[in-house]
Amino acid sequence: MSTEPGLSVIQTDPILRVDSVTKSFGKKIIFNNISFNVQAGQVVVIVGPSGTGKSTFLRCVNGLEDIQSGRIVFEGDIVNAHSKNIVSLRKRIGMIFQNFNLYPHLTALENVTLAPMKVLGESRKLADERAMDMFRKVRLEHRASAYPSQLSGGEQQRVAIARALAMNPSLMMFDEPTSALDPETVGDVLAIMEELARDGRTMLVVTHEMGFADHVGDRMIFMDGGTIIEDGPPSELLKNPKEKRTQQFVNSVLRPN
Fold this sequence. Notes:
- The protein is of the alpha/beta class.
- It contains nine helices and ten strands.
- The N and C termini lie far apart (41 Å).
- The N terminus is likely disordered.
């Protein structure tokens, strides 16, 4: 980005800082000494083979898992699952899981309004109005009264996205959001995620959808063996990776046969 003579670029602090973070379960190291930053408005896509710690990393960011060393700082707050501010922090991070995690005994509308009413103290009227706005955003207003069992997998995932959006989070995290979906419904969910990116949402996305990563992502992080192998623009990692292991992964995903 160019600037006029005499003008300086204002460098804002990252919304998320990951500094030399290590996570293990017992003696098994999940990821080791990883570091990177995320700026507000960025869409950062994390890719890599199964079992390399991608999903566990997202759980560490919102304090669902402890880390053994290093630190994670979100909007200036150190993430610690046992700290007093963890509830406040989780209000600002929307998490979309692989398997939707909707309450089966609640309607789609009730699933979306539950947290704003219980956590934010909103009235039912305000929560309902906000929820319907979110349903319109994910194109599901006609299914607000349905129960999860009456919805397709793609519809359930869109309800989960609406539920996260209803809290107006600063960061949206997606943990392989299309992995449990039928091929016909994957496109609907990816289209919603693309719209969120265009709206300027900060997003951290674990996915195997390379087309989405290339088209929507600002950065791609390739993890393997619990370490970051390569970090850069998706087009570079997909078309001209610098590391041999990245090239092997890209070839296996894009040209599996």
